[in-house]
């Protein structure tokens, strides 16, 4: 398996400082431009997370100017992936998939996305988006539905699908069902032939929810489908009042880096490790609080990508 190295994941919201401008067809903001001009050489690949412009038609042409510009800033010909937030892979409901599949495949053809990423979560119900994606229903019926839905997406998408371990935000989402989330996720990945994306913050949030803190954060990880792990994500997290918060504020915890180092040698098919949603100032520089552990992350991934050779 090719080791791409370090990835950059950006959730570019329309009209936000880290995002696309609404005027002019979606020019990346000056802040995004500054960050890519400063940091693009540090990264080996990039993904963008899909954010809709509005409630209008899901027409890929409406997104071409925005994506053309951001990928041009990152560098032509460099590896790209796509975090498609509309697959709704963990939903208990049936729904029509063709429009989203056609839209995603058209973008894949234009930009050469190497893979598509999506959380195994419930992103919407009855056509209404949720404020934060919920984990799937952890019952036998929920598992059956998740396997069926992910299996459909594996067939419909032109690029490989890498399913991300779901988020578990205590106080922000809730659990339905009693199945072990690691085993549930592993079954979905293995039965559908999908690849796996391990979000370190999501894993730690589940461990904290189960009371597995401190040294116990390594308990039970063998149940994850590590042999099919294609990508790892790290985003800013924080422990508040003993609760794990996946805040995407750019500041990585020591626990995240420790878990990453524990997992790296256990994932033989790993392609890359992504720093997701870094936060940066108007000059494109990482915010001060995020720099120490971001630099540690960069070093860990460099060492993993090019392991020391035995010169004896």
Textual characterization of the structure:
By secondary structure, the protein is of the alpha/beta class. 33% of the residues lie in helices and 20% in strands. The chain contains eight helices and 14 strands. The chain has an eight-stranded parallel beta barrel with strand order 1-4-5-6-9-10-11-14. Helix 4 (140-156) packs parallel to helix 5. The longest helix is centred in the middle third of the chain and has 17 residues, at 140-156. It is globular, with a radius of gyration of 19 Å. It starts with a strand and ends in a 7-residue tail after the last helix. The model is unreliable at 308-312 (pLDDT under 50).
Which SSEs are present, and which pair or pack?
Blueprint: E1 5-11, E2 13-14, E3 19-20, H1 30-39, E4 45-49, H2 61-74, E5 80-83, H3 98-111, E6 116-119, E7 122-125, E8 128-134, H4 140-156, E9 161-164, H5 181-192, E10 195-199, H6 200-209, E11 229-235, E12 238-240, E13 243-245, H7 254-263, E14 272-276, H8 291-305
Parallel strand pairs: 1-4, 1-14, 2-3, 4-5, 5-6, 6-9, 9-10, 10-11, 11-14
Antiparallel strand pairs: 7-8, 12-13
Helix pairs in contact: 4-5
């Amino acid at each position: 398996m090719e080791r791409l190295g370090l990835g950059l994941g950006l959730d570019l919201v329309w009209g936000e400082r880290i995002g696309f401008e609404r005027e002019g067809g979606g020019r990346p903001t000056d802040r995004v431009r500054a960050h890519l001009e400063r940091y693009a050489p540090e990264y080996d690949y990039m993904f963008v997370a899909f954010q809709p412009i509005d409630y209008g038609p899901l027409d890929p042409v409406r997104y071409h100017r925005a994506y053309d510009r951001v990928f041009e800033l990152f560098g032509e010909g460099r590896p790209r992936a796509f975090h498609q937030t509309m697959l709704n892979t963990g939903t208990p409901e049936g729904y029509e998939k063709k429009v989203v599949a056609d839209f995603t495949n058209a973008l894949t053809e234009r930009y050469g996305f190497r893979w598509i990423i999506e959380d195994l979560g419930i992103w919407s119900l009855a056509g209404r988006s949720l404020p934060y994606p919920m984990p799937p229903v952890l019952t036998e019926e929920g598992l059956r539905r998740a396997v069926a839905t992910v299996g459909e997406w594996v067939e419909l998408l032109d690029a490989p699908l890498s399913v991300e371990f779901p988020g578990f935000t205590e106080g922000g989402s809730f659990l339905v069902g009693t199945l072990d989330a690691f085993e549930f996720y592993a079954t979905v990945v293995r039965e559908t032939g999908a690849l796996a994306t391990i979000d370190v913050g999501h894993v730690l949030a589940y461990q904290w929810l189960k009371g597995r803190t401190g040294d116990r954060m390594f308990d039970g990880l063998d149940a994850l489908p590590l042999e099919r792990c294609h990508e790892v994500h790290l985003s800013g997290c924080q422990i508040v009042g003993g609760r794990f918060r996946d805040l995407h504020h750019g500041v990585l915890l020591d626990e995240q880096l420790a878990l990453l180092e524990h997992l790296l040698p256990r994932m033989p098919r790993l392609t890359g490790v992504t720093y997701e949603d870094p936060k940066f100032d108007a000059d494109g520089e990482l915010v001060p609080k995020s720099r120490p552990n971001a630099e540690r992350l960069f070093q860990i991934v460099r060492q993993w990508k090019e392991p020391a050779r035995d010169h004896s």
